[in-house]
């Protein structure tokens, strides 16, 4: 049975990179659970980077408030296909794809922690292919190498998002599908500041991330090379809302003011014509 959102948050967040040679566990736990980094916890009884620690993160990531991840990222709908992942966190989403028969390749940048992802797989007796990007932007694979692409852009955005998008487009096969997560501009904090401006005088909610936020319109412009864009908005807890707003259905509110934008789009099948001689394409 999945734990209730109000249950004590059991992830151990003590220690630091100096203790284990690994990054600060509190930072990674906060990111994996869509919580502000300032969030503190009531119990600290799990050893960082142990199997129990990773499993607890996984359970809470997909708990009721994160149930949308399974639907939006389609973990179980692409068995036998190849997936390129960027922004893997501690590897929870990569594990979900792997368990459903997807061949996962993780491309890391200088902002990622490949040793944490590898450890998460190894303690379960699994392996994962991890490669390093070239200059944090270039993906070291030929064009048309993958059926699917995943980019978690909620943290550590690249200096040149357009270059990252161009690379994802290049390595996707024609007709391939892209999944991307971005911070939502019009989230609960935005609407509270607009509709209840005096609230900021006595209550300043911590931000989920300091990465640049996006609107749906801006995402469509950035990913204009792709087609059939589907953008949805999710991730919201009742505790983040003023008391009067909590009487409204949460499923409705998160679609209006959730913290995360989910983009699903396709590389046009017509991109296959790029490889044909000019005479043949004509």
Task: Characterise this structure.
The protein is an alpha/beta fold. The protein has two domains: 1-66, no CATH class; 75-279, Rossmann fold. Helix content is 30%, strand content 17%. The protein has eleven helices and seven strands. It has a seven-stranded mixed beta sheet, sandwiched between helices. The chain is globular. The chain starts with 16 loop residues before the first helix and ends with a helix. The model is unreliable at 1-19 (pLDDT under 50).
The strands making up the biggest β-sheet line up spatially as 3-2-1-4-5-7-6
Mean pLDDT: 87
Please indicate the percent range of residues in DSSP E strands (runs of 2 or more).
15-25%
Largest β-sheet summary: 7 strands, mixed
User: What is the domain total for the residues?
Assistant: 2
User: What fold name goes in the CATH topology slot of the largest domain?
Assistant: Rossmann fold
CATH homologous group name of the largest domain: Vaccinia Virus protein VP39
Structural class: alpha/beta
Note poorly predicted spans. Answer: 1-19
H and E order: HHHHEHEHEEHEHHEHEH
Roughly how many Å is the radius of gyration?
20 Å
Distance between the termini: 59 Å
**Name of the CATH class of the largest domain:** Alpha Beta
Label the overall shape.
globular
> What helical percentage do the residues reach?
25-40%
Tell me which CATH architecture of the largest domain applies here. Answer: 3-Layer(aba) Sandwich
The total count of helices amounts to 11
How many beta-strand elements? 7
